[in-house]
Amino acid sequence: MFNRKNEQLIFTPESNDTISAPSIEAYFESAIVQTNFALEHQLGELGTDLRKNINRVKVKETLEKDDPELSNCHAGFDYRTNHISYTPISLRQNKIDNSENLTLFFQTRIHEITHALQYDINRAYCMDTDPTQNIILSPLSFLKACNLQEDDAEVKGTVISSIRSRMLKEIGRFDLDKLTPNSEFLKEYFEKIYSDVKQDRRTEEKINFWLVKHSSVDSYNKRSLREYFQKSLYAKINGLTPIIARISDSDIQSIGDSFGPNLFCDENGEILEKAREPLNLRFSQRAMVNTLERLWRIEDEASLPTTDEVLGRNQP
Questions:
Q1: In angstroms, how far apart are the furthest CA atoms of the chain?
Q2: Is the pTM of the predicted complex or chain greater than 0.90?
Q3: What is the pLDDT of residues 176-207, one digit of tens each?
Q4: Which of 68, 120, 228, 246 is 20 to 30 A away from residue 16, measured at CA?
Q5: How distant, in Å, are the alpha carbons of 247, 264, 312 from that of 302?
Q6: Residue % of the chain over a pLDDT of 70
Q7: How many alpha carbons fall within 13 Å on the CB side of residue 51?
Q8: In sequence order, what are the residues at sequence separation of 6 or more whose Cβ sits closer than 8 angstroms to the Cβ of residue 270?
């Protein structure tokens, strides 16, 4: 375990979950060690398989205390540098030497690592952010990919941290033999949480619509559209003429192949209808998509070639 000699964690009287500045780095390193231990010893074959994947992709993980791009966020993954940046927010609800209170950080870490695994398997959905490539996703396909990435990461982070927490509270609650990457038990658990997440988001969107507030999905879409717009302008200014493609079934499948059961496919590898659901965009987001489609002279999304057709890939 991490040696915390001379690195005592201090909590203020007002809030017992606040970590003092001098010791937050020590706590971060300890949290990484403890979550690695959980993967290797508390989550059966699923955990060890995930740990092997983490080692394989060699993602860099650091604590960033003063990154303005991560303000009010737990963490963020930068696919360009294969780097996960964590903020103090991901740690502040934890207490020293209480492994059950690592749940927030554990969930955040699995969420961001899932993004790293998604990108490692298939980089096509990121092509739109590099206009020097010969192909980019259409605005709608890009948003679809971003939403699927977040669904996959949120569900898997929630499920893995939940299983770990329940295992600690009641040893033997789950048979470790059931915790294999493609077990029926795990697939059903994933599907249940996925349904819950989708329902929670629909409820959040309805409430926030009347309160004129943004939901978490709104924030993802807003950020994604802003980046897409900036890169599109860069491409136009520099005279780049990439092929515009729409997302393919193999792209959707690869996003869900990050680890464990695939949320977006059935047992035969066919894409589920819930993975094809149209995006529920706000008026302002729809207007931005229309602007971007005019910029790239896209008249009909369905008439665009898929990434498989452009890249010569076989369909799953």
A1: 64
A2: no
A3: 666 777 777 777 877 888 787 777 666 655 55
A4: 68
A5: 10, 21, 18
A6: 74
A7: 17
A8: none
